[in-house]
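Researcher: Quick test of sequence recovery. Tokens follow.
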């Protein structure tokens, strides 16, 4: 299959390399430097999608108005000029706006948003949890062993992160709202705190990791008493009110996009594997 990998961050090098190693003919575009680009890839500046079976954009794929997100290029590229007359090429993208979706439909392009695929989100929890540990190591004077952790949310990231902290000897408390999550956390040997009936007491932890994309801590009173780090992993709006954020001060650490930041190779391979499965469908 002829595949064009366009823009995105360093993860895309490894996504492209993975797809090439699977036997595809892969071209990469939307990068200024060719230094780190794996040798098995063709490089093309200003390529269009004509003649390709599939185009893969990064996560997220676009800035406003159909501008392709190319943080490693000084050039500007636009979706419309890449996909014009390229049908029946398939497009794999992430977080496209209604404008970009309408544009792809107008040009008769069959597009798939891949960032919400369950397997990708699940596998991505591994580099995210490892990145979260790295943020803790960089900002703490304590070992994981014997430290008190609170993990808010017991979804994909919450589960993997709790297991890694526990395996290193950390004392883990999980904050969750469902009875099932609370029971599962206890079954795995952690303490569990219900978020069902209101705000948790967070005064006794060395570090709190939040994976809940919803304001669950508004009160700054318990924050004033504690000395813990707060590592925000969740997407906007995150778990803290503005007042709570201020109360944490420089102990509040916003930690978005960890897979791409710390482990682009692993994260890129996870994406490549997801695209490969979608292409086979
Ligand atoms: P997930 O599997 O959906 O888990 C989210 C958890 O939050 C679930 O346990 C859910 O509880 C809980 N939750 C949601 N709203 C809640 C509320 N109002 N009160 C209490 N609990 C609530 O998601 P995930 O894959 O673990 O991802 C977690 C967050 O991290 C997302 O915002 C995601 O975008 C972000 N993320 C960050 C990075 C990074 O590098 N920092 C990387 C990937 C993803 P229920 O099970 O009861 O619904």
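Model:
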């Amino acid at each position: 299959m002829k595949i064009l990998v366009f823009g995105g961050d360093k993860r895309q090098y490894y996504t492209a390399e993975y797809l090439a190693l699977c036997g595809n003919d892969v071209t990469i575009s939307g990068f200024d430097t060719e230094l780190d680009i794996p040798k098995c890839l063709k490089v093309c500046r200003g390529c269009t999608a004509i003649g390709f079976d599939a185009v893969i954009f990064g996560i997220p794929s676009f800035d406003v108005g159909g501008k392709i997100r190319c943080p490693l290029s000084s050039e500007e590229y636009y979706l419309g000029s890449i996909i014009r007359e390229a049908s029946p090429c398939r497009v794999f993208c992430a977080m496209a706006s209604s404008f970009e979706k309408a544009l792809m439909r107008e040009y008769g392009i069959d597009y798939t948003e891949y960032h919400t695929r369950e397997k990708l989100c699940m596998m991505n929890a591994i580099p995210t949890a490892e990145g979260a540990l790295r943020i803790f190591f960089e900002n703490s004077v304590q070992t994981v062993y014997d430290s008190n952790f609170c993990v808010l949310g017991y979804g994909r990231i919450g589960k993997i992160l709790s297991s890694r902290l526990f395996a290193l000897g950390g004392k883990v408390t999980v904050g969750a709202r469902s009875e099932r999550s609370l029971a599962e956390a206890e079954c795995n040997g952690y303490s569990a705190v219900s978020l069902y009936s209101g705000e948790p007491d967070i005064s006794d932890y060395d570090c709190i990791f939040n994976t809940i994309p919803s304001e669950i801590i508004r009160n700054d009173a318990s924050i004033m008493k504690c000395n813990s780090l707060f590592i925000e992993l969740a997407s906007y709006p995150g778990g803290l009110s503005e007042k709570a954020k201020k109360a944490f001060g420089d102990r509040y650490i916003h930690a978005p996009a960890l897979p791409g930041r710390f482990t682009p190779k692993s994260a890129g391979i996870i994406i490549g594997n997801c695209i490969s499965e979608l292409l086979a469908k």
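The pocket of NAP is lined by residues 121, 124-125, 128, 131, 153-158, 176-178, 181, 195, 211-214, 216, 233-235, 255-259 (CB under 6 Å).
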